Structures are given as structure tokens and as C-alpha cells.
């Protein structure tokens, strides 16, 4: 029998998205080869790096992040529809992925974004890779919208946080969903992204005070609100179009903006694949042609 065409749907999740790196590594070690990939927000970023052959580079960079380095990427700007211009992150992406197109990647890839004017779900399947990734993670109010393909685009998590439907439309018979929002309610701490010790001023106002997290900053509130939205929307969409296998990393104890926890997140992504291994094997056997 021939194995089924496998699609991988990588969810949104803000800083918890580094768990996708561990998932991809564990799937490869398990011999499970995906044929198409769809990603939303941080899932698009990790999926794009993977298909471009730069997953190791992304992992090394993510593991190098600490609070001081994170702050260096926060180029504050209030002029373009977002608190952060994103130019420093864009330079980093262009240095590694700048010459690539979506259709030029080694496997079919779709990036999910939201059209700001209409609220429509937009699938980006060709054209320059980096602007598409920027559009998919453009958290409203934090990053400015991205003008691309005659659309003004923002974070895809607003419309399709776990893009199972996209994988099916791309011809996948077996869809594996990686859902980073599965254990959101009841366990997660306040979203945190604290600045340097003894910081203050604008950094405290945006990200909260360094300490017990009792005074969340503006960005924390926005990120947590988006997480609530994507959790509720994700449940609804997955009920109507469920994946064949769900991989659910247990990341609720890690703050949404703790980008400096890559090591813990990657390890948990790997562990989540091991927990789902028997379901993956069974699904491949059952859906084989």
C-alpha cells in the first residue's frame, strides 16, 4: 500500500511557537514525512524556515534569545499602525530567507493571513516568502499591517489559528495539526515579556513590570486577548473540520511572550510527538491507499 499524502497544520501561538521546531524534528526522526505544510502566524514562520532548509538556523537563533536580546529587536514606532515597526526582524529574515519564494520551497506551503479591510482569510501560496511570513505574524496593534498582493494583511490567527482546512484544500488525505492553544485555559501564567532588570518607563508600560506579573502591560493584554480569540475560534473550526491527528504540546505554563524559553518549548514539542506516536502510526496505516 502507498502511504497517504500528509499535511501538517502549524498553529499560531506567539512565543510558544518554538515548540513547532521540536515537533518537526521529532516527526523527521520518526520517519514521518509530510507532503504539504500550512502555517499561521508563528507557525508560518517556523514552517517557512523548515521548508527553506533553515530550521537549524532558526533553532540556534531562538535558543540564543534572552531578555536583553529580545528588547533589541523591539524597534518602537507609533507611525505605521503598530507599536513595533518590525524592521529589525525583517532584516534578520531577509538575511536568511530574502531570495526565496513560496513556490520555490521544497514542498507546497501556504501562509495564512487576514485581510484587514474585509476580514477575509487569505492564503499566500506564491510570491516572496519573507513578506508573507511578516503578514502572517503581524499581530494587530503590535506590528503594522503588511501590504502584499493588493491586500492589507495582519495576523492569520484572527481567522484560522490551526489551518487544517488549508491542508485539506492542498490535497492532504491525512492532516496532522499542531495546536499550541490546547491547554490555554486554567493553567497558563500571565503573558510575560519583561524588560531588563531595573528597567522602567515605556518598557514597563508596554510589557509589564519585572516581577510577579500583577500589572500586565499593553502588549501582554493584547497578546492574551488574541490567545483567547484563537482558542475559541480554533475550537469551533476544529469541530467542523477536525484533523486526523492532533499534536498538543503542553505549553500552558509558559508565557505567551517568553521568547527566551526556546529550550523548554522545543523539548516539549518533541515530547508531544512521542505521546502521539501510536496515533500517527495508526492513522498512516488506516489512510494508506
Could you list some keywords that capture this structure?
globular; 289 residues; alpha/beta; eight-stranded mixed beta sheet; 11 helices; 8 strands; single chain
Explain this structure to me?
This protein is an alpha/beta fold and 289 residues long. It is built from 11 helices and 8 strands. Strands 1, 2, 3, 4, 5, 6, 7 and 8 form an 8-stranded mixed sheet that branches. A hairpin with a 5-residue loop joins strand 3 (109-115) and strand 4 (121-124).
What's the SSE blueprint?
Layout: E1 6-10, H1 19-29, E2 36-40, H2 42-51, H3 55-64, H4 67-72, H5 87-97, E3 109-115, E4 121-124, H6 129-136, E5 146-148, E6 151-155, H7 164-169, E7 174-178, H8 202-207, H9 218-240, E8 245-247, H10 262-275, H11 277-286
Parallel strand pairs: 1-2, 1-7, 2-3, 7-8
Antiparallel strand pairs: 3-4, 3-6, 5-6
How much of the residues is beta strand, in percent?
Answer: 5-15%
Helix/strand order, N-terminal first: EHEHHHHEEHEEHEHHEHH
Rg (C-alpha, Å)? 18 Å
Please estimate the helix content. Answer: 25-40%
Task: Give the beta-strand count.
Answer: 8
What's the main sheet like? 8 strands, mixed
Low-confidence spans: pLDDT under 50, at least 5 residues? 193-199
Number of helices: 11
What class, by secondary structure content? alpha/beta
Summary?
This protein has 289 residues and is an alpha/beta fold. 40% of the residues lie in helices and 13% in strands. It contains eleven helices and eight strands.
Amino acid at each position: 500500500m502507498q502511504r497517504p499524502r500528509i499535511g501538517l497544520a502549524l498553529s499560531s501561538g506567539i512565543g510558544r511557537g518554538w515548540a513547532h521546531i521540536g515537533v518537526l524534528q521529532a516527526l523527521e526522526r520518526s520517519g514521518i514525512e509530510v507532503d504539504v505544510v500550512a502555517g499561521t502566524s508563528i507557525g508560518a514562520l517556523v514552517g517557512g524556515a523548515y521548508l527553506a532548509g533553515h530550521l537549524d538556523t532558526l533553532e540556534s537563533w531562538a535558543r540564543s534569545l534572552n531578555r536583553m536580546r529580545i528588547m533589541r529587536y523591539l524597534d518602537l514606532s507609533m507611525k505605521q499602525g503598530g507599536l513595533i515597526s518590525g524592521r529589525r526582524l525583517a532584516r534578520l529574515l531577509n538575511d536568511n530567507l530574502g531570495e526565496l519564494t513560496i513556490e520555490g520551497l521544497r514542498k507546497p506551503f501556504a501562509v495564512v493571513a487576514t485581510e484587514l479591510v474585509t476580514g477575509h482569510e487569505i492564503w499566500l501560496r506564491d510570491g516572496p516568502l519573507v513578506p508573507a511570513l511578516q503578514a502572517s505574524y503581524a499581530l494587530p496593534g503590535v506590528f503594522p499591517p503588511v501590504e502584499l498582493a493588493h491586500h492589507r494583511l495582519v495576523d492569520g490567527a484572527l481567522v484560522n489559528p490551526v489551518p487544517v482546512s488549508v491542508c485539506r484544500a492542498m490535497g492532504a488525505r491525512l492532516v496532522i495539526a499542531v495546536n499550541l492553544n490546547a491547554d490555554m485555559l486554567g493553567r497558563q501564567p500571565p503573558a510575560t515579556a519583561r524588560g531588563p532588570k531595573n528597567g522602567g518607563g515605556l518598557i514597563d508600560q508596554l510589557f509589564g513590570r519585572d516581577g510577579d506579573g500583577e500589572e500586565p502591560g499593553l502588549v501582554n493584554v493584547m497578546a492574551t486577548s488574541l490567545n483567547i480569540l484563537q482558542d475559541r475560534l480554533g475550537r469551533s473550526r476544529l469541530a467542523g473540520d477536525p484533523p486526523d491527528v492532533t499534536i498538543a504540546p503542553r505549553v500552558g505554563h509558559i508565557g505567551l511572550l517568553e521568547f527566551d524559553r526556546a529550550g523548554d518549548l522545543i523539548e516539549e514539542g518533541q515530547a508531544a510527538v512521542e505521546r502521539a506516536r501510536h496515533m500517527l502510526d495508526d492513522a498512516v496505516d488506516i489512510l494508506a491507499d
